[in-house]
Amino acid sequence: MPKLGMEPIRRDALVKATIAEIGATGTLDVSVAQIARRAGMSSALAHHYFGGKEDMLLAAMRHTMGVYAAEVRGALAMVQGPDQRVQAIVRASFSPRNFRADTVAAWMNFYVLARRAPQAQRLLTIYQRRLRANLTHALRPLIGQRAASAADRIAALIDGVYLQQSLGRDAPDGAQATAQVLGYLDLELERAHP
């Protein structure tokens, strides 16, 4: 079995340290030195693996989106029927791995980064399109032509709950967040089938 080199281990440590540091400070105004210190290495080594802070932020963004995508795929694999598919997507959005204080802070700061970094904008656009496509696909058998607009509203609610959480001081409550968004889904379904 081939030996795992130090590069992937250190890169992973730096990505996780980036997310943790953004979560601790609540801002993108963290230095490579702060991130490297949190990862237990020198800033020179951090620069060696990523080149600069923006590259670290983009890697952290990819990592966070990858975790989210894996949660959604896993949740969708275990359900049957369109109503369960929508619920699975919403639940994955607020799962313990995705709806933690540091991850919420990272997501909010990724939105800020996307305003000035084209690569971050591209990643965020991919995430938004996938979320809306998954929701639209699941909603279409339930509410027909209104599926795309309802998907937009549900996606906006998910983002809104993250925004509210980023402004609050309480620990993230995934169950409450899920209930909020699924409550709106119930309204959409009632409207479709009065």
TrEMBL record:
Q: Which residues form the HTH tetR-type domain?
A: 8-68
Q: Which residues form a coiled coil?
A: none
Q: Which residues form the signal peptide?
A: none
DNA-binding region of this protein: 31-50
Locate the transmembrane regions by residue number.
none
Entries under Gene3D superfamilies matching the protein:
Tetracycline Repressor, domain 2
Q: In which pathway does it act?
A: Amine and polyamine biosynthesis; betaine biosynthesis via choline pathway [regulation]
| The keyword DNA repair appears for this protein | no
Keywords in alphabetical order, please.
Answer: DNA-binding, Repressor, Transcription, Transcription regulation
Pfam families to which the protein is assigned, alphabetical: TetR_C_6, TetR_N
Q: What does this protein do?
A: Repressor involved in the biosynthesis of the osmoprotectant glycine betaine. It represses transcription of the choline transporter BetT and the genes of BetAB involved in the synthesis of glycine betaine.
This chain belongs to the protein called HTH-type transcriptional regulator BetI
